[in-house]
Design a protein that fits this description.
This protein has 547 residues and is α+β, with helices and mostly antiparallel strands. Helices cover 23% and strands 35% of the residues. The protein is built from six helices and 30 strands. An eight-stranded antiparallel beta sheet has the order 25-22-19-20-21-18-26-27, with no helix packed on it. A six-stranded antiparallel barrel has the order 4-13-16-15-14-17. Strands 8-7-5-12 form a four-stranded antiparallel beta sheet. Helix 3 runs antiparallel to helix 4. About 7% of the residues have low confidence.
Length: 547
């Protein structure tokens, strides 16, 4: 190949060829060593394989790490709570009987009850509370009466001798006109409630005017007015009303004891009444003569009678004032009106003048008075769980003499020895968890210290006099006992070591409030202050890894 000379661009010189030895393939001239082409290819293949293996290995490690982080992040967190000392106010629940001055009003005839006053309304003396009517007959008479009223109104419009000596009808007409005029401005807006207010006002005024017109019995109206009086009289025959004899509060809830337990009998109420089942019933829509219709509370002074422990009433005196908390969370200021101390309990009567309306439908009252502060270990109720364990009598257990030993040895009927963890114990037995396939209800155990005797069986071999000795283990039946009983123990899972350890507790149901049990530290030595316990015991199992 020709090239151009740099000194003479127009001249051409012959380019030298690179000389490569053909005798040694793969050798590069000027190098100190050489790699055969075949080996070089093998090395390249090996390097690619090694790179692929390394890539796969680190890929698996990376995926494992990501999965581990994801599993840790998505794994439900087991919440724990530290045991603390605390006190919870535990009020004492009591039962009392409410005594009121009340009168029951009964039906004088059969028919349907129609109340004219509302429930718990305060009314005066001689007020009509309700009517009792024969519905069919009353509807018939009202239909005929309506026809007569329409006839009277038509005649009033046609007659020319309208008598209005006092000007009542003219005043009523003017009042209706004034109602309409005064409502015009209000009706200009979009408040439709004003329209309904106008409607009700006009209806009331029209009714007053019609009553005035219908009361006129002169001239051509004399005969229709006489018919109207007859129908009014007939209507009264099918309707009876009940009027109050004094003032009070109307209540339609009747339990049947209103006339039996009155303030006059406060000193004679037996304790059995406090625990009796009380029935309440509302007034029926249809009644018969003698049936109760409603009751009237005659006084705002009412009483609560109860039997209370002498421990609570030790310092009480007649005339003292207190506040009791009723079942509907009402605080009742009361005065101690009567107290009679017995051997263990006192009969007391509280006098109250407030919140009467809130208890008119109540006869038996659950209430709280006083409180005691119990200090102990605060355990959330959600942390408590029941666990079924095996009860093994102490004579079948080999352990330290201390009843608080943590482990024990038991011996199976086949000679095997097991070391078990004691969950709880008492003077007569220890309680341990079952071991699948080895220890369960019905397992036969051998008493500790009982040796297993050896028995020998001797026999002649066939065709000779050689003696063979067969050794057998013999266990006396008297030394064997069966695990017969399982027991449900209450406990919590302690999480101090990162494992869910079951620890038994002793609960006093009376010492609880606001979602916590207050445990006596002397009876619950399996846990102590500042221990960590699993908040939701149902979410874990024993020996589960928590952290």
């Amino acid at each position: 190949m020709l090239t151009t000379d740099k000194r003479n661009p127009t001249a051409r010189v012959k380019r030298k060829k690179r000389v490569v030895s053909r005798k040694t393939p793969g050798k590069r001239l000027g190098s100190d060593s050489f790699i055969p082409i075949k080996e070089r290819r093998i090395a390249r293949s090996r390097n690619r394989s090694l790179a692929m293996v390394s890539l796969l290995f680190f890929g698996f490690v990376f995926v494992y790490i990501i999965q581990s982080f994801a599993a840790f992040a998505l794994k439900p967190r087991i919440e724990v709570e530290q045991v603390a000392l605390g006190g919870v106010s535990v009020p004492k629940q009591l039962t009392g009987l409410i005594i009121r001055d009340e009168t029951v009003y009964r039906a004088g005839s059969e028919g349907e009850v129609s109340f004219q006053v509302s429930e718990l309304e305060h009314i005066k003396k001689n007020v009509v509370v309700c009517g009792i009517q024969d519905t069919d007959e009353v509807n018939r008479v009202k239909t005929e009466l309506s026809t007569v009223n329409e006839e009277l109104l038509k005649l009033q419009n046609l007659r020319g001798d309208l008598a209005d000596p006092d000007g009542n009808i003219r005043r009523l007409n003017q009042r209706m006109k004034n109602v309409v005029n005064s409502s015009l401005n209000e009706l200009m807006g979009s408040d439709y409630s004003k329209l309904y207010k106008l409607k009700d006002s006009l209806a009331s005024e029209v009714q007053l005017r019609n009553q005035a017109l219908l009361s006129d019995n002169t001239g051509v109206l004399k005969e229709p007015a006489r018919k109207r009086e007859l129908f009014d009289s007939e209507l009264a025959n099918y309707m009876s009303v009940i009027r109050t004899q004094n003032s009070g509060i109307v209540c339609t809830v009747i339990d049947g004891y209103e006339e039996t337990y009155t303030p006059d009998l406060l000193s004679e109420l037996p304790k059995e009444l406090m625990e009796a089942e009380w029935n309440q019933s509302l007034t029926a829509k249809t009644v018969k003569p003698g049936d109760p219709v409603f009751k009237l509370i005659n006084s705002n002074v009412w009483h609560i009678a109860a039997y209370i422990s002498n421990e609570i009433t030790e310092t009480w005196e007649v005339g003292m004032e207190a506040v009791i908390n009723a079942q509907n969370e009402k605080e009742l200021p009361v005065e101690l009106e009567k107290i009679e101390r017995g051997e263990k309990e006192s009969y007391v009567v509280f006098r109250c003048t407030r919140h009467l309306e809130d208890f008119l439908d109540t006869r038996v009252l659950k209430f709280y008075i006083g409180q005691s502060d119990d200090v102990g270990l605060k355990i959330p109720k959600t942390a408590v769980i029941e666990k079924n364990v095996l009860r093994i009598p102490r004579e079948l257990v080999e352990s330290e003499s201390d009843t608080n030993a943590k482990t024990a040895k038991i011996y199976l009927a086949d000679g095997k020895e097991l070391s078990v963890k004691i969950i709880s114990s008492d003077d007569y037995a220890v309680f341990v968890s079952a071991i699948e396939g080895m220890l369960a209800q019905g397992t036969m155990l051998r008493k500790p210290g009982e040796t297993m005797a050896e028995g020998r069986s001797i026999g002649d071999m066939a065709g000779g006099t050689t003696v063979e000795t067969i050794v057998e283990t013999i266990v006396s039946e008297a030394s064997l006992s069966m695990i017969e009983q399982t027991v449900a123990l209450q406990g919590v899972y302690r999480a101090n070591t990162g494992l869910a350890e079951f620890r038994t507790i002793v609960i006093n149901e009376e010492r609880q409030n606001l979602g916590y049990y207050i445990l006596d530290p002397k009876l619950n030595r399996g846990i102590k202050e500042k221990d960590n316990i699993v908040l939701d015991a149902a979410a874990v199992v024993e020996n589960q890894i928590l952290f």
